[in-house]
Amino acid sequence: MNRLNKKAFHILRVELDKCGGDNSVSRIEREIVLTRLKELRRKQGSPATAEEIRDTVVDTFPEFSDRVIKRAAKANRPPGILSHLKWPAIFLTSAAGLLWVVNLPYPMIRWPVAKTAPLLLLPSFISMDNNYKGSIQSLEQADQLINRATSQADIELGGKQARKAQRHLDSLPAWFLGYYPQAYCNLFGCQWKFTFDEFENARRRTARIEAKVFQEKNAFAPFQEAESALKAAKQKYKQAKNSQEREQALASIQTAIDALTEVPASTLAGKQARIKLTAHRRDFTKVSRGVVGSDRTSTLIAAARLFAMQAAQASQNPPHSAETWQQIAQMWTEAITRLKKVKLDNPNYLEAQKSLVTYQNNLGIIQTRRKAESESKRALQQANQQIQQLIAYPPSDSNRLKGKLQGIINLLRTVQSGTTSYKESQQLLVSAQKKLQNI
Q1: Which residues of the chain are modeled with pLDDT < 70?
Q2: C-alpha span between 37 and 352 (Å, rounded)
């Protein structure tokens, strides 16, 4: 290896031409320094350092630029390992860029490549396969966590897995499902089985799980609020100093219990609430009976509340039969009867009257619903009888047939919503209307 390479020699020679003047002495001095530099060019050995180059020129030209000397010494260093990797790096970068382009999710690019060089599409197939497996795995985990949840933490983790599955599905190009390069799959024995229908089903399943998580979270908030209110009401009852304060605490307990019954039963919070309701109602009944023994007025009010609580509980999840509505109405009547026995001069008279107004209003609603249930059931029975007669003895005249059908339709329309007969009546109504239109 020459001690001074061509590039460093050129840098020094350009600067040397600027040194000295234009007289004969300066030209001779430049020739002397140039000869020394050429001698370094011919010598073999380690590259000349900045100090050696400086010793070669500064004794003749002290004003020689030190910056140029350092630049020449840097240029004189032997090439490092990175310089040998320059062209391979450029090649690899270009190849990576080309590979990225051919794997873009555009049919006009992928189809020609799939015919000629399907192996180039391997990265995108690996990515799709990983996203496919990731979506299925995350969906299964989310489904298990949500549908078999035992705590709110399971719901939270299930929601995270559902969102993870959605990200995997978003990374799958929907247009590419069911399409794959034949040569690639024949060569390696692969087969892409994730169809568009499966893709849509996975998306719908993810959406259902996310909706379930949303419902679970919404149900958990009122459950916690009701539990906190119930705990505070029980504490308030323990600290009560007189019957009036105890009555107020009992009312708060009843309100909290009612709030627990409103938590959707299909959610985890609803299931936990149903389990705790049994114990809470038992405690409430025990406490109410304790209040009953305090005085006659408290006994009447507490007894009325017990009947009201049972009536409200029996009224849940309608529709009910007319017999059930009648039983509920009887409970409200019993509660009203006891409240009416509270005397005018009693300190709790005003409170009893407030409850009496509420109970009487509830009784009126129940009686209305019982009446609607009875009338709707009777109308449905009559409609079914007329339908059976029409099937057994259909009139030959189309106008008579239309008249009978219209009569059945009018009868079915009298069936009120919110009754046990309503669903069946609507099905018969649609059938009768279609039959009438086709005549």
Answers
A1: 79-111, 113-114, 117-119, 121-122, 173-197, 243, 286-297
A2: 118
Distance CA 409, CA 418 (A): 19
Q: What is the pLDDT at residue 364? A: 95
Angle at 393 between CA 387 and CA 398, to 5 degrees: 85
pTM over 0.70: no
Angle at CA of residue 250, ends 326 and 254, nearest 5°: 45
Both tokens of 310, joined, read 């049972």
State residue 44 phi and psi, 5-degree precision. -100, 145
Query: Computed over its alpha carbons, how large is the radius of gyration of the chain?
Result: 46
Taking 3-state DSSP, the helix, strand and coil percentages for the chain, each rounded to the nearest 5, stand at 75, 0, 20
Q: How far is 124 from 384, CA to CA, in rounded Å?
A: 63
Other CB atoms within 10 A of residue 334 CB: 17
- Angle value at C-alpha 408, between 406 and 410, nearest 5 degrees: 70
The predicted pLDDT at position 263 comes to 83
Q: 1-31: buried (b, 16+ CB within 10 Å) or exposed (e) per residue?
A: ebbbbeebbebbeebbeebbeeeeeeeebbe
Q: Is the peptide bond before 319 cis (omega within 30 degrees of 0)?
A: yes
Q: Where are the alpha helices (DSSP H) in 171-267?
A: 182-188, 196-238, 243-261
Give the C-alpha separation, 394 to 401, whole Å: 7
Residue type, 31: E
Sign (positive or negative) of CA dihedral 312, 316, 322, 323: negative
Instruction: Give the model confidence (pLDDT) of 323-370 as tens digits.
Output: 999 999 999 999 999 999 988 877 788 889 999 999 999 999 999 999
Rounded to whole angstroms, the Cα distance separating 375 from 379 reads 6
Q: How far apart are CA 50 and CA 72, in angstroms?
A: 8
